[in-house]
Every structure is written in C-alpha cells, then in structure tokens.
Amino acid sequence: MDFLFSADIRSYKDMRNAELREAFVTAPLFSAGQISLTYTDVDRGVVGGIMPTATSIKLPTHKELAADYFCQRREAGVINIGGEGYITVDGEKYAMAKKDSLYIAKESKEVEFFSIDASNPAKFYLVSYPAHRVTKTVHVPKNKAQTVELGSQDTSNERTIFQSIRPGIVDSCQLVMGITELKTGSVWNTKPPHTHFRRTEIYMYFDLPEDEKVFHLMGEPSEVRTLPLESEVAIASPNWSIHSGVGTTNYTFVWAMGGENQEFDDMDHIKVADLK
User: Fold this and answer.
1) List of residues 6+ apart from 6 with CB closer than 8 A
2) Residues 6+ apart with CB under 8 A from 63
3) How many CA atoms lie within 13 Å of 160's alpha carbon, on the beta-carbon side?
4) Domains, the chain, ranges and CATH?
5) Which candidate, 215, 192, 187, places its Cα nearest to that of 273?
6) 39 with 4: CB under 8 angstroms?
7) What is the mean pLDDT of residues 52-71?
8) Which of 4, 50, 141, 172 pairs as cysteine with 40 (C-beta 3.0–4.6 A)?
9) For the segment 122-172, what is each residue's pLDDT rounded down to a tens digit?
10) Residue among 105, 25, 118 nearest 73 (CA)
C-alpha cells in the first residue's frame, strides 16, 4: 500500500509541482494483473486500481488498516472503466459493464475481481472511506444512476453527471460517488469553481488521450495552484481546496466524496474572476 501525506492549507503555497504531486496525486492506478492501493490522510480515504486478466484478484487487507479484512470497518465504491467484468462479494456475483458501479457495504469479508476477457480486461476503480454502520451492498448499472445535465457550450462546460452512489439509490455511510462526462468541445469539469468545507473529494480522470492533459486547480481561491494530470491517476482534494479543472480536450472523470454531508448540491460557488 502506498501513502499520500497531504500538505496543509499553509504549506502547499510554498511547494513546487513535484512536491504537490507527492502529497496529493497517486501513481498510475492500473497495471495488467495487478492491484494498487493508496492510503491518503485526506479523510483516511483509500484509492485503488484493480485490473484482473487471466486470473482474479482478491481485495487484500494491510497491517496499516489494523483489520482482519479490508471492509471490516470500511465501505467501498467501485466503478469499472474498462472491459466487462464482475465482482463477487461474499459469494454473490455482480456483473460490471463499463461505467457500472458497485457499493460494497461495511463487514463484507471476501471481495474478488474478475475480467470476462483477459485481452480486454476490466479496470475497477475503488474508493473507500471508514464506515460506522452496516448497510447493504448495491449494484448500480450506469443506466440506473441519477442523471443530471449541466453547463453549456457557451461556457465550455456542457456535461452529463451520473450520480450512482448517492442518497436515494444507495444507503451509504459517507461515500458519495459517480461519473461526469464532458461533451465534445467542453473542457471545464465544473464552472464556476466551488468548495465544500463539509466534505473532501477524490478525482480520477480517464478517457483522456495520452498526448492530452487535465489542468487540475487546487488551493485557496486567493492562492491557486495548477497540476497537469494524465489519465488514470487520482488526486485527493482537501476540504479547504477549490474543486475545478480544465482539460486540453473533453474527458471523463470519477468523483468520490466523503465527509459530513452527502447532498450533491452542497457547495459554495466561487466566481472565476475572484481566483488569484
């Protein structure tokens, strides 16, 4: 398990890009036949990339979690961004097409990941937060997510939001998770930028060509930093940081949030003109 030891609201201002990446950005998440897990001290979130090929991959625990099994005191959300696959949770099988979601409840003991075709493997993206109660594991196909259309071509942020792990669909403890797809010609993932001090967020950009980047904006509105990010890495965004980014082309990303409030619209907007 890798670790991200985040910077605070004061120290980030004096850090170079390489230092900011070391504090907030994971290594590339997906390698064929491998599982990668990264623990961040931003709300104790764990980020994972699981890419089974010819053989399945079990979700392990680590001594740092001080648990008999991974979900003993944790909940997890998984979204497949690759080929078709399936997940078993305590023996129950859940088919996972591309962009399907699975919420895995606290106290789920055995979690295993499979690809249907090793030549076109699934890529299971996982985000986990501590959980305080036992709920229910729920499979959410992409077409069952709550869909929201936002933005416009005029402001380069026309996008479709698929809210899959959220109140009304999944009874989670604190995890809220979903996908945003930007339309052709749109590049801003949220506009205007916003903060939500009551919860943190983890972004993972994908469906981005190798020669393109997303410029992720972070920091206080009065002291913004910009990190150019490639596809299939995740960045942890603390509650004091703005949430925004702009790409060199359209792209897709998974957002996941943990904290006090699960309401998607709980955000404080910031005028672009006020960013410095």
Assistant:
1) 23, 24, 40, 41, 42, 236, 238
2) none
3) 10
4) 2-274 (2.60.120.10)
5) 192
6) yes
7) 95
8) 4
9) 999 999 999 999 999 999 999 999 999 999 999 999 999 999 999 999 999
10) 105
Distance, in Å, from the CA atom of 116 to the CA atom of 136, rounded to the nearest integer, reads: 25
State both tokens at 176: 């809220």
Neighbouring residues of 65: CB distance < 8 A, sequence distance ≥ 6: 72, 73, 74
- Can you tell me the distance from the alpha carbon of 242 to that of 246, in angstroms, rounded to the nearest whole number? 13
Letter for the amino acid at 190?
T
- Cα dist. 190→58, 148, 157, 163 in Å? 35, 13, 7, 15
Q: With CA atoms as reference, report the closest residue to 126 among 77, 179, 170, 84.
A: 77
Give the separation between CA 101 and CA 5, rounded to whole angstroms: 28
C-alpha 274 chain-centroid distance: 27
Q: Which residues contact 118 (CB under 8 A, 6 or more apart)?
A: 53, 54
Radius of gyration of the chain (CA): 18
Distance in angstroms (rounded) separating the CA atoms of residues 182 and 144: 19
In the chain, alpha helices (H): 17-24
Question: Is 0.85 topped by the overall pTM?
Answer: yes
Strand order in 74-80's β-sheet?
2-4, 34-40, 46-51, 124-130, 74-80, 101-104, 138-140
pLDDT tens per residue across span 243-265 = 889 999 999 999 999 876 566 66
At 165 the pLDDT is 96
Q: Tokens standing for 109?
A: 């003991």
Evaluate whether 126 touches 85 at the Cβ level (below 8 Å): no
Distance CA 34, CA 115 (A): 12
Q: Which residues pair with 32 in a beta bridge?
A: none
pLDDT for the residue 68? 96
